Amino acid sequence: MVYTTISQVVDDLAKVFPIFLYFVAALVTFTTMNRFIDEERINSGTLKALGYDDHVIINKFTFYGFISGTLGTIIGIYLGHTLLPQIVYHAYYNDLTLPPIEQHFYWGISIIAIILSWISSVLPAYLTAKGELNEKPAALLLPKPPAAGSKIMLEKIPFIWNHLNFTHKVTARNVFRYKKRMLMTIFGVCGAAALLFTGFSVKNSIGNMNKRQFGDLIHYDMIVAKKDPITHSQNVAVNKKLHSNAIKSEAPIHYESMSKTAGKNNDSQDIKLIVPSNTKNFKNYVHLNNRKTHKNIPLSNNGAVVSERLANLLHAKVGDKISMNDGNGHKRTIKISGITEMYMGHFAFMNPTKYQKVFNKTFSTNASMVILKNGSSKNTENEAYKFMKLGGTAGVVQNTTITQEINTVVESLNMIMIVLIIVAGLLAIVIQYNLTNINVSERIRELSTIKVLGFYDNEVTMYIYRETILLTCIGLIVGYGVGDLLYRYILYVVPPDNVMFNPALSASSFLWPFGVIGIITLVLGFVVNNKLKNIDMLEALKSVD
């Protein structure tokens, strides 16, 4: 069950994250090729002036894109077939008994990866170079002229515009002056922030599932089910064990397995029906709680309380009627009186009066919820073994078994999220570094000019880096929105039918992406500042001659 759950989780994650990562990586490749062609502008003009055909010059760039894209893809294919499978395998190896890993080469996926790499490296190189070579050789022999300035929408809002100082007005105009770079920065930061937000949100969401369900919601350690039929002597033996010194307390219940077809694949869902004989002390064993309002849910005569994941699968809400089959295959229709917070398994709870009305038979107990004095995993297994040795015991449901299953799923997902977070962090570094470098290189004459005019080093740095900070903040905000969509996908599509991730977002989900991208931006700010301090102003200003 656990292996199937984990493999399904990995399959669902594999449907969305490679696509998202590809678009972010394609942006990095696109900006790199753009920068390379811009830097070779004068050389391209020289070759064109010497009589070389445009397609020959274009081939120079497309060949570079082809070679770099192919080599990068080959390395990626190798690591994807060797390193990543090992990481995923060892994420499960400690908790599951698995055969030795078998590594196979997947031609179809590899060919798709190569084609996509050519699309993101060769195609931009061809289109950018072709557009550049439309200019005359004389124009190509000069550096690319700066983008023309124009009035922006902000200027039409006097209340804001009139309160901005000179440098802030320059920043606002420059942001819209370089629209392509503005969009690339926002999209790049957005992609990295979205991945970081998703990774940390999922980690937070699954991190406390176990503690929440088996610490705050479910207090019993096991359910001991009696045989049906059971002899008098067998019943006495089981009851004697239930009142032994190892048992802290026990509560008689009616325990029954129900089923309902639901979920993505219309699978049969196993539902545990629990009907306590005494509803007053039921809260000592199970805490029924609305996750959103945190209000206690009573067991009333109005209907049954069902677990939240089951309600979501059935698209049901409080007041709706649902039908499920009992162990004999008879359909039972139940009205939902409440939806309780639960993360693992499907549950339905009702009081004896409602049970008798729904099932048309007299209520009787056939099991007990048990709280042990020593609730450790080892002792729970020992006590379960002692119960199973009794002839009157039909079965024992241990929470420790379910806890271990949840831990296995959580640890496996955690490893995948850590890999995702590392990749997102590296992408953020590459994107920010690339775009900042392009920004400085393209505007070196402009920066040299304001430095000659007497601007201090810090003012020169902030003249250009203020734009990066502004666009990074915008990208971060947009990234939170995109990240939330990815996070919702993982919450509602990735988990198996009997598992629910906690959808509540914590402050750390927002603070970590802000912190990671903020630190990267800050460090790059010092790099840019150091670079601009050592700029040769005269060389930069006479480069046109």
SSE layout and pairings?
Blueprint: H1 2-14, H2 17-39, H3 41-49, H4 54-93, H5 107-132, H6 137-140, H7 158-161, H8 166-177, H9 179-207, H10 209-217, E1 222-226, H11 232-242, E2 247-262, E3 267-276, E4 304-307, H12 308-313, E5 321-325, E6 331-340, E7 346-349, H13 352-359, E8 367-372, H14 377-388, E9 393-398, H15 399-442, H16 444-452, H17 457-492, H18 507-533, H19 537-541
Parallel strand pairs: 3-7, 4-6
Antiparallel strand pairs: 1-8, 1-9, 2-3, 2-8, 4-7, 5-6
Protein name: ABC transporter ATP-binding component
Membrane topology: Multi-pass membrane protein
Domain MacB-like periplasmic core: 183-377
What does this structure look like?
InterPro entries: ABC3_permease_C, MacB_PCD, Membrane_comp_ABC_pdt. Keywords: ATP-binding, Cell membrane, Membrane, Nucleotide-binding, Transmembrane, Transmembrane helix. It is a multi-pass membrane protein. This is ABC transporter ATP-binding component. By secondary structure, the protein is α+β, with helices and mostly antiparallel strands. The protein contains 19 helices and 9 strands. A 9-stranded mixed β-sheet has the order 5-6-4-7-3-2-8-1-9. The chain is elongated and about 105 Å long.
